[in-house]
Amino acid sequence: MEFKNLKVFQPDGTFKSGGLTITGDRITGNTPAVDACDMDGLYAIPGLVDVHFHGCVGYDFCDGTHEAISAIARYQAENGVAAICPATMTYPEEKLAGVAEAAATYQVEARDAALVGINMEGPFISEAKKGAQNAAYLHEPDAEMFRRLQKKANGLFKLCDLAPELPGAMEVIEQLAGEVRLSIAHTEADYDTASEAFRRGARQVTHLYNAMPPFSHRAPGVIGAAADNDAVAVELIADGVHVAPAVVRATFKMFAGRVVLISDSMMATGLTDGEYSLGGQAVTVRGNLATLADGTIAGSATNLLNCLRSAVNMGIPLGEAVKSASLNPARAIGVAHDYGSLEPGKLANVVLLDEDLSVHSIILRGQML
After folding, report:
1. pLDDT tens for residues 238-271?
2. In which domain, by residue range, is 21 found?
3. Is there a single domain that holds both residue 242 and residue 364?
4. Beta strands of 222-327 (E only): which ranges?
5. Residues 40, 112, 264, 273: which is the catalytic one?
6. Which residue in 88, 71, 47 sits closest to 264, CA to CA?
7. Residue 112 falls in the annotated catalytic set
8. Residue 194 and residue 304 share a domain
9. Whose CA, among 62, 84, 102, 119, lies 20 to 30 Å from 299?
10. Are residues 39 and 52 located together in one domain of the fold?
């Protein structure tokens, strides 16, 4: 396949007029032949990488079945996401082990996004900031428990979330820092505690602003500590519900080059309003808003491509939004050798967008969907 007359996304977040040559499942060049297919100035962006979401189209990753994974992966691919790292919820170890085994034995199908990792969001989190997580199954940070689950998953856990103020958390961070990317999450940590967690090896913050103390001029907290550490990436849900537009704009300035857009979507994504569940708890969905009975926001009801569009509508330059939904997350979980940009040698996952950012076509591992 050869395409010319495209606005091609560059790893620095800019766009360059040019083309793409695809051979098999890989991008093999950026200078196609003169008689290549003329794409009339479409945007060419890499397939997106979602490192934090729970489900869609009526399925939850924690269903722990190949059927659920396939349905989720198919929907994601059809909406421009080429690689997925779905998140678990707070459950007992036995339940999480079943989910890990299902992921480890799943075989990707031709029209599915690739399952490149798992994000362990619970159970090492604070009860006070549990959000939509189930308090009945919370567990103090435990390196050996993580390692048992990692063995069941055949190494698929790429992220492990924890609250650094919990007993033993700092020691667990030191023990696991060389084995998995650690992300501060669902926490009451203050600035000093978060800074110490980053010093010991934590490198990410889970859904910034949500389930943590606010950033203020006398108590900068996790957010301020992350801003002071250039090695730390921050997840951001730009769905128009979780974070106000002005804060999204401020975040891209404060964390330039370090934002990882996520969807945090739950099973209602891709379906109509109604009653659903997340982590075994009832969730009501109305538009983009998903809530528990007490009004707690319970994930999102939108996909990553829509979050990217939402960020652009909030004033984020398209290139920055694309980088934050593709290359930054790919780097965060160690898959940037295959995903996240349109450089020769990488997998041919390409989303072609019209000027209004509607999808013109999707190429997944060299095949047109």
Report:
1. 999 899 999 999 999 999 999 999 999 988 899 8
2. 2-44+356-368
3. no
4. 233-236, 259-261, 274-278, 281-286, 289-291, 297-300
5. 264
6. 88
7. no
8. yes
9. 102
10. no
